[in-house]
Amino acid sequence: MYFHSIKNVQQLPMNLEEAWHFFSSPKNLPKITPPDMGFIITSDKTDVETMYAGQIITYILKPMFNIPIKWMTEISHVKDKEYFIDEQRFGPYKLWHHKHSFVKTPTGVEMTDVVNYVIPFGFIGEIAHRLFLKKRIEYIFTYRTKVLNEMFRQ
């Protein structure tokens, strides 16, 4: 089994409360996900306004080749205005653990995403990872960085 990790750090020109309010609301995920992924939250919309530990969020997305995939994550940990963790309960990965951290800085907030994941299908999955899956995950964070810079530019 091969474990992979991706880390993305971004500076945001906003205060900690604004950053936490935006990122801890699952309803904002479609705004920062590439449109070609067809990301749709399918869980009860009234349940996704404020994140809490134990919250289950379901989605449909099309990460590759326009093929829809159902994904279920649980918000496993929340420390107000510091971090939250989402973990896949059902979906395309063998393991998905994503920690979102927020630190106040003199110019705003430093947001750090660390994703630890395992691709299914053993050696064949690893070939797919090397050929295109890793690039696709990196593309999501590159897109997110660009969109957030545009949304929150001073």
Helical percent range?
A: 10-25%
Query: How many distinct beta strands?
Result: 7
Rg: 15 Å
The main β sheet shows up as:
7 strands, antiparallel
Structure write-up:
With 154 residues, the protein is of the alpha+beta class. The chain is 25% helix and 39% strand. The chain has 2 helices and 7 strands, in the order E-H-E-E-E-E-E-E-H. It has helices at 16-23, 122-151; strands at 3-12, 40-41, 55-61, 69-79, 83-90, 95-105, 108-118. Strands 1-7-6-5-4-3-2 form a 7-stranded antiparallel beta sheet. A hairpin with a 3-residue loop joins strand 4 (69-79) and strand 5. The protein is globular, with a radius of gyration of 15 Å. The mean pLDDT is 93.
What's the short version?
The chain is an alpha+beta fold. Helices cover 25% and strands 39% of the residues.
Topology record:
Blueprint: E1 3-12, H1 16-23, E2 40-41, E3 55-61, E4 69-79, E5 83-90, E6 95-105, E7 108-118, H2 122-151
Antiparallel strand pairs: 1-7, 2-3, 3-4, 4-5, 5-6, 6-7
Give a quick set of tags describing it:
7 strands; alpha+beta; 39% strand; 154 residues
